[in-house]
Design goal:
Helix content is 23%, strand content 34%. It has 4 helices and 11 strands; from the N terminus they run H-E-E-H-H-E-E-E-E-E-E-E-E-H-E. The protein has helices at 4-15, 56-68, 75-91, 186-194, and strands at residues 29-39, 44-54, 97-101, 104-105, 112-118, 124-137, 143-147, 154-158, 166-169, 176-180, 212-216. The termini are far apart. This is DUF1007 family protein.
Length: 220
């Protein structure tokens, strides 16, 4: 089973001769992430800004391959190219982002404002904004979202190293947020544990292990 994130990056890596496709198999990894929910001046939700911090091994492997590539581009330029490739491929995967309001799916706009950089801890961080297709008034009903890889090869977890994994930007002062932990049933856990590295996971497995972000604003 290949990581979806490796699939996003693989076309660009193989195109410029970084690694052969057979070398892309990778142990189960994780992404620590946080979400900044953006509001407009009418208290409507307009976008989810996401910050994905890739795990140390994955970050090290990728930056080493970037550094060893032929060409005159700076590391920053190569990261920009990588960010563009990831963004383009995420567009075909619904950005791995699933948003609902009052029980209905919320349509998303086009991903924008993406960057990928290496932090002081040497981990790669991919940052981007997913706007809603239309501004949304919450009117007392919770807005919820999950971010996950269908195959559960990459695990997405809210970043526990920061105090507020959900930030509210320009939100009314009476809005509240919380993270709801995943509670997969024992059979789902057993199914995931039984998968070999190269096995194909059933589509949608990641949903059962995804944490849920929630924001509620009182009706006005």
């Amino acid at each position: 089973m290949l990581s979806r994130l490796f699939r996003y990056i693989a076309p660009w890596l193989t195109l410029i001769g970084f690694v052969p496709m057979t070398a892309l198999a990778h142990p189960h990894g994780w992404v620590d992430y946080r979400v900044i929910l953006h509001f407009d001046d009418q208290a409507h939700v307009i976008a989810l800004e996401q910050v994905w911090k890739m795990d140390p091994f994955y970050s090290l492997t990728l930056t080493e391959e970037l550094a060893q590539a032929e060409g005159d581009e700076s590391m920053e330029e190569r990261l920009d190219m990588l960010g563009e490739e990831i963004a383009n491929n995420l567009r075909g995967e619904h950005y791995l982002t699933h948003v609902t309001h009052a029980g209905d799916n919320v349509a998303l706009g086009n991903l924008r404002d993406y960057t990928i950089r290496q932090g002081e801890d040497h981990r790669l961080t991919f940052r981007f904004v997913v706007p809603l297709a239309e501004p949304l008034a919450l009117e007392g009903s919770p807005l919820t979202w999950q971010i996950y890889d269908d195959t559960y090869y990459i695990e997405f977890l809210y970043d526990q190293d920061i105090g507020t994994p959900i930030d509210l930007y320009n939100a009314p002062t009476d809005c509240t947020s919380r993270v709801i932990a995943a509670a997969p049933d024992p059979q789902r856990v057993a199914d995931a544990a039984a998968l070999d590295r190269d096995a194909t996971a059933p589509s949608g497995l990641g949903h059962f292990f995804a944490e849920t972000g929630e924001v509620t604003c009182p009706a006005r």
